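Justification of computing resources. Each target in the renewal requires a structure prediction run like the one illustrated here; the chain below, 175 residues long, is used simply to show the kind of job we budget for.
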Amino acid sequence: MSELIHMHSIGNNLNDVKVEFKKELKLDTSGISIDGKQGEILNIPRWIAEILESEKHVEIQDVDMLVELKQAVEKEKMLGQFDLSTLQVQQQADPHFYIKMKSYMKRLPEKDYDKVESMLNTLLRTRQTKIIRLADSSKITAEISQKLSIEELEFYNNLHDNSSRFSKSIIGNKK
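Resulting structure tokens:
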């Protein structure tokens, strides 16, 4: 994983997420104080929520990324082979789509994980093919950039740079 993607993943884990407390909990450590009663819903940092959920203290009330993934796959299928859809979460462009998807998938049971992973692979293959075609033919535009996740943007730029170097090695520089 590149440093840029790693940094964005850390940032996502620092964002708040809604949780429902399954039992009363008082926590005060390292400057973090959480006080929740059973049934109460609060916003807490995702990284803490994931730990508390693994210990059955809370249930994360997160975006249903399966719905978002299904919509993304359908949109991608409807568009032509050179058109990319915008990856969205809750009907807003989201460059962190895959980061949120991975976070969602970590909490799935294995049988559900395999189904979601298969659907995600379908989306990845479709978008990857389109990105390869686009990156080989042109530098990134603002319009294309807005449709890409941070991972895809890095992929696009790497492909474009490699394609340009390859062409120059064959053709050479113009006079």
